[in-house]
Amino acid sequence: MLFQEPRATAYDFSFSFLGFPVRVHPAFFIMPVILGGSVFSMAEQLEVNIGVTLLVLVVVFFISILVHELGHTFAFRMFGIPSRILLYWMGGLAIPDSGGSWSIRSKQSLTSNQQILVSLAGPFFGFCLAGVFIGLVYLLGGEIKVLTGSFMPTLVPDLRNTSLAGNGAMFIFLFMGMWVNVFWNVLNLAPVFPLDGGQATRELLNQFDPSNGIRYSLIASVVAAALIAVYALSIGDHFIAFFFGYMAYINYQSLSSFGSFGGRGPW
């Protein structure tokens, strides 16, 4: 499955951070290239070396996704569950040591409200990191502009009246730091399983209707993912359209399986 933990390889990079084991799969480095592809044309206009641009993208994505997953792992720790972090080509996973990835794990010993808090902790940490990047822009004497016309409004640093005016690498660092931590975390809050918003939505629906909560969450996932995919396609964002189109498909498949098991579909 898309959100399962990939097997370890000889090229994995492992370390410990704040008491959490972290494993970086080599495929993780595909994501900065895919999602940051349009930045290379920006870098060319800013006369920034491609190698420097790639390094900036990798650093921003690495820090941003690690911080997001730290939100989940700190929440797990708060509820007495040890966990670890995996960074791979789809982003990251916070994995309880008792087994199974966070995205598709069983309920384990957490209550429904605790599971919601664990789900939302990742985006919360991500938005806090976005605030750090925004604060850094103002600390440097710059300003923030908001551009519309893309999938969602985009924050752009204005460094023209600072000592870093004309520093293309710093512009890309600040721009991507804000973009990744706003854009990616907003998408993660979409009510689409197994994204964080989908996890929280499933728990809420289960509280209101334990018998049909999962089925309703799958229906909500299919509808929300399809709408996002259609909207992304209408504005020419083919990657987001593909991603959420696939999310709609796998949730539809789960919904079909759910019915065939007499209302006891997979978690």
Write the layout of secondary structure elements.
Layout: E1 13-17, E2 20-24, H1 30-35, H2 39-45, H3 50-78, E3 83-88, E4 91-96, H4 112-139, E5 143-147, E6 154-158, H5 168-188, H6 196-208, H7 213-234, H8 238-260
Parallel strand pairs: 2-3
Antiparallel strand pairs: 1-2, 3-4, 5-6
Helix pairs in contact: 3-4, 3-5, 4-5, 4-6, 6-7, 7-8
Please characterize this protein's 3D structure.
The protein has 267 residues and is of the alpha+beta class. The protein has 2 domains: 1-189, no CATH class; 190-267, no CATH class. Helix content is 56%, strand content 12%. The protein has helices spanning 30-35, 39-45, 50-78, 112-139, 168-188, 196-208, 213-234, 238-260; strands at 13-17, 20-24, 83-88, 91-96, 143-147, 154-158. The strands form 2 sheets. A 4-stranded mixed sheet has the order 1-2-3-4, with helices on one face. A hairpin with a 2-residue loop joins β3 (83-88) and β4 (91-96). α3 runs antiparallel to α4 (112-139). It is globular and about 60 Å long. Residues 99-107 and 260-267 have low confidence and may be disordered.
User: Would you tell me the structural class of the helices and strands?
Assistant: alpha+beta
Question: Whole-Å distance between the termini?
Answer: 13 Å
Kindly give the count of domains: 2
Q: Tally the beta strands.
A: 6
Question: Would you tell me the overall average pLDDT?
Answer: 86
**Largest sheet, if any?**
4 strands, mixed
Order of helices and strands: EEHHHEEHEEHHHH
Radius of gyration from the alpha-carbon trace, in angstroms = 19 Å
Helix fraction bin:
55-70%
Shape: globular
Strand order of the largest sheet: 1-2-3-4
By DSSP (H or I, 4+ residues per run), the number of helices equals 8
Assess the beta-strand content as a share of residues: 5-15%
